Structures are given as structure tokens and as C-alpha cells.
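Input C-alpha cells:
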């Protein structure tokens, strides 16, 4: 048996999956209609919408199968998400990757498998629409096109879901999307004992930009700041616009010193962006950094409040000419 490889873009892939807040959610008819249709159209006993988590595949919709999840190490879908192309296994017992897989030698007794990767709007493959039969069979090019059409229906549902967690103006996470992701990250950090840091941002003199140059210039400043955040932080980090001119970044597996490095990159990126603006305003910010303590931080709202307070402390000290001894605070 061959264990599925981990994609190079795994951190970004999982972030897109968690942003949906769909894992372990209730059944929804929009997804169940697709698996029922697939089962009838292809005359297979099992059709699934499978979402590949860090260590499991979880079935958002399942037709003909009682299990709600299996381990990722033995999943067929873990192989499917490694490519944009569908994966077809006509007889699993004759395939070196799967012949001794427990899903083949035991229940549900897979012999035939056809899976089409399902992508989020940002291009990350988070799962599949797959067909399973207990008998070997062939799969034609027309079958592949029909399976792709059905997978497209799942992707359309996911796109609508993403739109509820994205900020319309900047394209990054909104508060709802951030809270969904941050909760997953806090739980994962508690299990793995990896350090995290939360940074709260407020744009300096943002009202003056709106008043002097107009709201279109203010919108441009927000868009440029969001773009600079995405450029300055890593794929594994979560950046979001909470509302107005307030932004946040949650850094995964990062000590506070790493946050200072990211902030310096952000300043450099913004300075470069500001130098190319036709209108003469600079995009500057204040930031409060909170190290996330293992086993202590359980509620993201409490963390946000602490980082917000630290940000305003830093801003008051800077505007009053005082030098802040440190941006770091503990709560």
C-alpha cells in the first residue's frame, strides 16, 4: 500500500479548508443531491463528497456508506488531491498503490474508484467527489466529463460558502472567516504545543486620508494594506480585515521575535507601495503583538481584546513621543 504524499501547498490547502468551517457540519441537501445523482448516473453503490483534513478524510455527503470518515493514510482521495486531474482505479486489487489497502481488503471492499478533485476559489484542492464500486469496471472519457460537471456543482456550493467568510473590498478573510480559522489554529496549537503570535493592526490617520483624498483613496489604502499583509506573512499565517481600518494576523508556529520580522517586512512593503501612489499619502500602521500561551488561550475574542489594547498603548506612546519598551504583552 502506498500512503498518500503531502502536497507542497498543504498549509495553504488546510487554511482554505478550515476557512469554510464545513468540517463536522450537518448534512446539507445541496451536497446530498449531487451524491444521489452520481450514484444513479454511474450506477455505483457509493458516492461521496470527501474533504481531506490534516489526518483524516471526512465525508460532507455520503450515499451508500455508513462511515463518516476514515484515516487519511489509507484514503484514495488523499492521492486524488495531489493533482488537478481525476484519479481512476479500475481494479484496486491489481493496483500496487491499493491492493493491500484495508479499504480494499475489508469494508467497504473497494474495487473501482473514480475521484475528481474539488477546489476552492483560490485553487486549493480540499477534497473530492468520488465514486466507489465493489466490482472492477471501466470508465470512459464521457464518464470523466460527467464526473467533472458534478464536481463543479460542489465547487459552486463551496464558492458561495467562501463568499460569506471573505471581505468584499480586500478579498482577505472577514471577521467571521478569521474566527473560524483562529479557533482551528488554537485547538491545533494546544495539541502540538507550537507557539503562535497574534498581531492587531490599525491604520494611522486613516480618517485623514478619506477626508483629504476621498473615500476611493481610503478604499485603495485598505486594499493595498491587505495585499501587503498577504505578501509579508506566510501561507500558514491567517490575515483578516475585522472591519473599518482594523486588521489582524495570526502567526502559526511563530515566536514573538518572528512577528517583529514580519512587521518589518510589512513596513518595507508598504513604503514601496506608497512611493508609487499618485496621491501623496503614506500608508502607516500601529500594531499590538500578543504571544499565545500554550494551554492558556482558549478564546479568540479575549486574545483580540488584549492585542487591541496593546496596539493602542503602542500608538499612544508613539504619538506622545514616548518609546514603548516593548510591544509584547501577556494576558
Amino acid at each position: 500500500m502506498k500512503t498518500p504524499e503531502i502536497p507542497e501547498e498543504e498549509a495553504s490547502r488546510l487554511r482554505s479548508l478550515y476557512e469554510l468551517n464545513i468540517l463536522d457540519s450537518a448534512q446539507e441537501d445541496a451536497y446530498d443531491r449531487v451524491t444521489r445523482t452520481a450514484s444513479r448516473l454511474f450506477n455505483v453503490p457509493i458516492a461521496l463528497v470527501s474533504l481531506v483534513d490534516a489526518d483524516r478524510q471526512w465525508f460532507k455527503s455520503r450515499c451508500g456508506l455508513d462511515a463518516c470518515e476514515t484515516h487519511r493514510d489509507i484514503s484514495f482521495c488523499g492521492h486524488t488531491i495531489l493533482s488537478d486531474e481525476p484519479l481512476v482505479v479500475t481494479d484496486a486489487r491489481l493496483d500496487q498503490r491499493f491492493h493491500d489497502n484495508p479499504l480494499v481488503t475489508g469494508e467497504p471492499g473497494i474495487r473501482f474508484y473514480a475521484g475528481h478533485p474539488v477546489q476552492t476559489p483560490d485553487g486549493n484542492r480540499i477534497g473530492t467527489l468520488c465514486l466507489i464500486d465493489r466490482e472492477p469496471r471501466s470508465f470512459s472519457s464521457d464518464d470523466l466529463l460527467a464526473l467533472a460537471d458534478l464536481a463543479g456543482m460542489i465547487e459552486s456550493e463551496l464558492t458561495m460558502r467562501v463568499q460569506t467568510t471573505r471581505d468584499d473590498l480586500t478579498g482577505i478573510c472577514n471577521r467571521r472567516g478569521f474566527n473560524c480559522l483562529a479557533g482551528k489554529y488554537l485547538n491545533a496549537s494546544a495539541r502540538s504545543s507550537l507557539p503562535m503570535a497574534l498581531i492587531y493592526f490599525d491604520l494611522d490617520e486613516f480618517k485623514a486620508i478619506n477626508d483629504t483624498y476621498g473615500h476611493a483613496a481610503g478604499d485603495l489604502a485598505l486594499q493595498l494594506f491587505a495585499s501587503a499583509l498577504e505578501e509579508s506573512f506566510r501561507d500558514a499565517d491567517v490575515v483578516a480585515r475585522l472591519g473599518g481600518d482594523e486588521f489582524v494576523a495570526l502567526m502559526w508556529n511563530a515566536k514573538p521575535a518572528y512577528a517583529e520580522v514580519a512587521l518589518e517586512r510589512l513596513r518595507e512593503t508598504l513604503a514601496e507601495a506608497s512611493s508609487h501612489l499618485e496621491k501623496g499619502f503614506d500608508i502607516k500602521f500601529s500594531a499590538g503583538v500578543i504571544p499565545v500561551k500554550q494551554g492558556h488561550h482558549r478564546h479568540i475574542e479575549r486574545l483580540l481584546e488584549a492585542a487591541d489594547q496593546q496596539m493602542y498603548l503602542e500608538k499612544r506612546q508613539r504619538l506622545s513621543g514616548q518609546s514603548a519598551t516593548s510591544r509584547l504583552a501577556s494576558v
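Residues 116 and 149 are 10 Å apart (CA to CA). Residues 175-319 form a domain with the Alpha-Beta Plaits fold (CATH 3.30.70.270).
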